[in-house]
């Protein structure tokens, strides 16, 4: 026997295995990993392209480039209006007011004639009397002129003027238009030049154009020398959203990975096999921390490669720490949010630096900083402003605690950002662990809000005060004698405090109740009552035996398994697994080392191979590293997956996946193996696909066998062999919907219904007690292999058939259930058992006369036993809940009955011929989802005389024959009243 690791050694082993699993998943999902690591390159490239585009847009303006030796601009001319950006055609070079003065008219004429390089034609100028008229025209004709001149002749020596123009700069097709230089200053120089000429030449001069021939007016403009000025610094505007988006890619991938494992119940499966939560979180934190470190390092590297001042002028260590701590903070944030999210999807928002100002209270800033992107955006803004020009010194490592350059308000420093990120990262991790415990998981399980205050949480031990508790007095004892005997055996041993070494699991009055809830709709409030999944279960599971739990969907089978494995906390009672109580967290930790579980769903990652799955779960169970490889090889050989050991599970067929799941359950030689529908995999088929199959069946004649999807008969038989061989040295608990599987594999069977055990015993015991009788199968000569008799013997065969049918009808009052050319099958009620000796002795004496080859007698099938018990339980519940189904008679009449009703009287069918009316027998079966459904109805037959009248039956049920929809309400007849 291999000794398993425990405690700290097991924690380290589980951590290493999970870390390797995370590495393999990331390596094989290369697209997501590449995006997580190298998204920063594309965003840095986008920032670089954006910066170059902005600079190209301002390339014609000296304001956005370093100017050391500016050139003068000498008397610039008034440009044609067509060269302006903000102009609609047809356009005017300029408009003017003051045309009531002849002197002003001459000045304007001189402006037009003396424009350097290009006289302005009169068609490109429009005059008005007053500025008000100009405003009115501009309002009616917007954007048809870049501006206007307004003249006023005060006296002979004073002429005033004003300029009205649009001062908005425009960038268009790579050109930058500054209206001050392109229109306002040229118009101002021309106006002042001609006004001066007019004043110098005197009032009596005939023409100011020639009055002062040596007059010169030369004006030149020279910019101040200046460095490049970044009025729109890309790193402070485009940078924050781009870098937040970079981090969000990793954030979404990280959270999706966590949620996928929760959604697919992979983490739940690992927990059932003994996984420590600390190993789980530590493995994810380490792996994602490494990816975060590499991603942050690449961001800084790419930024330096593209020569951004943001990265070159600031300390690289300071910048790296901002990115790393932010992404690490988002990792903790993802851990916390994953507790609230049940689907693999998430969203993110881009933040702004809204409250980081002195006009906002400190509390607002603290609350705003709890969302990591907000603080990250502020940090980027500080770093960007500190390097907005090449002359800025940036933020060094030694000055990170000081106010950043160009930060006038200084409400937060880079050092504060680092400290805040580190503190909130710890906060998110603590909250992630807390919410992971107190928020219901996929099974609806959660701990109390103050679970961390309970001593047993830290000590790992719980009080066993309920271990010997007996059921309360108000519990209703079971009706079945075998179930009652099982209860008494367990209670007797509890009172005597005596353990049976042959018992592996002892369930003591197990109770599980799921709390009710309240759904508030648009107009009404609906209260959902509590659901009692288990109602006091008492049963023993013996060692070296396979116990099979049968039941319809919702009977409580999976709840038993979830309680035994600690997935679902119990409401009452207890269970001992090899002496360890499931009420104790310490006991549960020991139980999980002893248990192997194959749940309904496949506990597989598509990207991992079969060998890697077994290595992971062997490490979780605590097998020594030296023995893991040999154990894996033996497990693969046992389930015939040696050749597919290195093939990814995503390529496995349905049967291969189930074999691998069973191998995982058996890894580590567990003493208790729980197999929840290991061969039938209909439960793992998506719900929408089940709905599709349901619609096909309901609205067409097609039939689709969902029960055997993915598991062929050969694979099924092989899986049964594996389960049979696994019984030695351990106890096995099996749940299934296949009665054939239960009959072949089980040593003991318990049938559950509505949270209670209805019967228990071996297959033969259940058939003898609850079967409808016996099956007699008669084979005729020449058909020993199921072959049809030769043509020459057909007449004799027909004669023999009729003789045997007549014999059974006379002696046992039965007709054949099945009939073909080679055999007859009779279903014989149990009350005819006393007639068997004489009947079959005579039949054997007349064997040659009847042409009989052999006679086989056996019990009715286990399926009939199960359906009989399940049907009765469903009928009790359906009557109490008013749950009805409808079937249609051959005459077209629709009849409504409770689920599980077997014999049903049809009201309104009384006649002179059948005064008591007619009835039908309803046949039931289990559908692919484990629920009872109608498989067919018998022919209409008269109600026997010993049955109560239809009127009395209806009055006792308190129901009307006909409801408002016109559907007949059937009357349930007690099967014990039917004499067959």
Break the fold down into its secondary structure elements and pairings.
Blueprint: H1 7-28, H2 30-57, E1 73-74, E2 94-97, H3 102-113, E3 125-128, H4 131-140, E4 147-153, E5 159-165, E6 170-172, E7 175-177, H5 179-201, E8 220-221, H6 234-237, H7 239-263, H8 266-272, H9 277-305, H10 309-312, H11 316-338, H12 362-369, H13 372-385, H14 414-438, H15 455-459, H16 481-496, E9 503-514, E10 517-520, E11 525-528, E12 531-542, E13 546-551, H17 557-564, E14 572-577, E15 580-581, H18 585-594, E16 595-598, H19 610-621, H20 625-638, H21 654-666, E17 672-676, H22 687-699, H23 713-725, E18 731-735, H24 739-745, E19 748-753, E20 756-761, H25 763-770, E21 773-780, H26 794-812, E22 816-819, E23 823-829, H27 836-845, H28 847-850, E24 852-859, H29 862-881, E25 884-888, E26 894-898, E27 903-906, E28 918-926, E29 932-937, E30 941-942, H30 950-957, E31 968-969, E32 971-973
Helix pairs in contact: 1-9, 1-19, 2-7, 2-9, 3-5, 7-11, 7-13, 9-11, 11-13, 11-14, 13-14, 19-20, 25-29
Organism: Trema orientale (Charcoal tree)
Membrane topology: Multi-pass membrane protein
Transmembrane segments: 32-49, 199-219, 239-260, 281-306, 318-342, 420-439
Plain-language structure description:
The protein is an alpha+beta fold. It has five domains: 1-53 and 231-438, no CATH class; 73-203 and 216-221, D-Maltodextrin-Binding Protein, domain 2; 481-518 and 527-767, Rossmann fold (3-Layer(aba) Sandwich); 772-782 and 795-859, Alpha-Beta Plaits (2-Layer Sandwich), CATH 3.30.70; 882-977, no CATH class. It is built from 30 helices and 32 strands. Strands 16-17-18-13-19-20 form a six-stranded mixed sheet, with helices on both faces. Strands 27, 28, 29, 30 and 32 form a five-stranded antiparallel sheet that branches. α3 crosses α5, α7 (239-263) runs antiparallel to α13 (372-385) and α13 (372-385) packs antiparallel against α14 (414-438). Residues 203-211, 345-355, 462-474, 681-710 and 784-789 have low confidence and may be disordered.
